[in-house]
Design goal:
Blueprint lengths: L6 E2 L5 E7 L6 E11 L2 E9 L7 H13 L5 H17 L3 H10 L7 H16 L9 H12 L4 H20 L25 H13 L4 H12 L3 H6 L5 E2 L4 E4 L8 E4 L2 H8 L21 H11 L9 H14 L4 H7 L12 H23 L6 H4 L4
Antiparallel strand pairs: 1-2, 2-3, 3-4, 5-6, 6-7
Length: 386
């Protein structure tokens, strides 16, 4: 193949060869520059006449910048680009850590909720940042932005997800952590939700009126067993032992599978359900249900329940409150029924237990006063006396 003829220009170190434009197929000039750098002669293409809008004058400027070090050579530019790509590949951003975190947890029961938190809140503000480069301002900006439209509990859960992702990266030695502690918004973790006798009675009426809806059965099970929303969605028929009277709860919030008693009310609720899937409360196509918000909120409105009452988690609180206030269930047993991982979580109901004990103590005082005033003690109070 013949070597193209070099044509001189009026600028030292700038020449061109005649070529063909790859875009139009028409003739065009291809400019080159020659210069010496670090004692070595360098020759490189400056650009094409039409494709790069190159002229001898522009080529001369490029040559001068190359010689002065203001502009890297093409080889240096390629090396810089290569180094930049390598550095980018080695960057463990929050985005990349999140994908790795998910990949390392094939069984991830909270993936849907966490994915929504990540995509809606973490990714837009922090996804492209490395943990070591995070600042308190980044965390404060996220927290303050979310608090404008979300409850403190939601903000806390999102920040806890961020902390989990970072801790995963640090533990796997993929990155360094931030140089500060991510502060969590204060939440009332001891808040309990309850219903008055009248509200509960009205709710039960509405549940009977909507007995054909899956939401009605799910709300009854939350009230009769105290099961969590996710536990009800994951519940399969094989987990219900009608013979021995137990429900096997798989992957509860505490992490270890649990068994809770199947009481008569819950048993009847389940017996009234059709079996159309392996799941007790199936979603679309018989698969595991992922949401039922619209139906339960409709029932909540029909029953006239308070606006801030959570239809499913609130009924779990009602279940626990009824048992605690009865005075017949100790907190250890209540913790077992609620499958609490820590007894501290059950202490929120301690004041209800105390109220029941206070009522019992007041009753004893009334009985003594009655006896002192000449009245007779109830028969049960005289048992054991000689």
């Amino acid at each position: 193949m013949p070597v193209a003829k070099r044509e001189k220009t009026n600028y030292p170190g700038v020449f061109y060869i005649n070529g063909i434009s790859p875009a139009t197929g028409k003739p065009e000039k291809i400019y080159y520059i020659r210069y010496r750098k670090a004692g070595k002669m360098v020759e490189e293409k400056a650009g094409r006449q039409f494709l790069d809008d190159m002229t001898p004058a522009r080529a001369a400027i490029i040559r001068a910048e190359r010689m002065s070090g203001k502009r890297p050579t093409r080889q240096e530019d390629r090396e810089q680009q290569k180094a930049a790509k390598k550095a980018e590949a080695e960057r463990w951003t929050i985005d990349r850590l999140w994908e790795e975190y998910k990949a390392g947890k094939p069984v991830y029961k909270g993936i849907v909720t966490d994915q929504n938190r990540y995509l809606n809140h973490l990714k837009p503000l922090l996804g492209d940042k490395e943990p070591a480069n995070l600042t308190p301002f980044d965390a404060d900006r996220l927290r303050l932005k979310m608090l404008k439209t979300h409850k403190p509990g939601t903000v806390k859960n999102t920040l806890e997800l961020l902390r989990r992702i970072i801790n995963f990266g640090v533990k796997q030695q993929l990155c360094k952590g931030p140089g500060f502690t991510i502060e969590m918004p204060k939440t009332n973790s001891n808040k309990t939700e309850d219903l008055t006798v009248e509200q509960l009675a009205r709710l039960l009426e509405v549940l009977e009126e909507n007995s054909g809806l899956p939401a009605a059965a799910i709300m009854k099970m939350a009230l009769f067993t105290g099961m969590r929303r996710g536990e009800l969605f994951r519940l399969q028929w094989q987990d219900v032992d009608f013979d021995r009277g137990f429900i096997h709860i798989r992957e509860p919030k505490g992490g270890v599978d649990q068994k809770i008693p199947l009481n008569a009310a819950a048993r009847q609720t389940l017996l009234d359900l059709p079996r159309t899937s392996e799941f007790v409360f199936p979603g679309r196509g018989g698969n595991q249900r992922v949401d039922i918000k619209k139906q339960v909120n409709r029932i909540k409105e029909q029953a006239g329940l308070p606006p801030d009452f959570r239809p499913l988690h609130g009924l779990r609180h009602v279940y626990a409150s009824m048992l605690a206030s009865s005075g017949q269930v100790d907190l250890y047993t209540l913790a077992r029924l609620l499958t609490h991982k820590s007894p501290q979580m059950t202490l929120r109901y301690a004041h209800l237990r105390d109220e029941a004990l206070r009522r019992a103590s007041d009753l004893a005082g009334d009985l003594v006063n009655q006896a002192m005033n000449g009245g007779k003690l109830p028969q049960a109070a005289t048992l054991g006396r000689e």
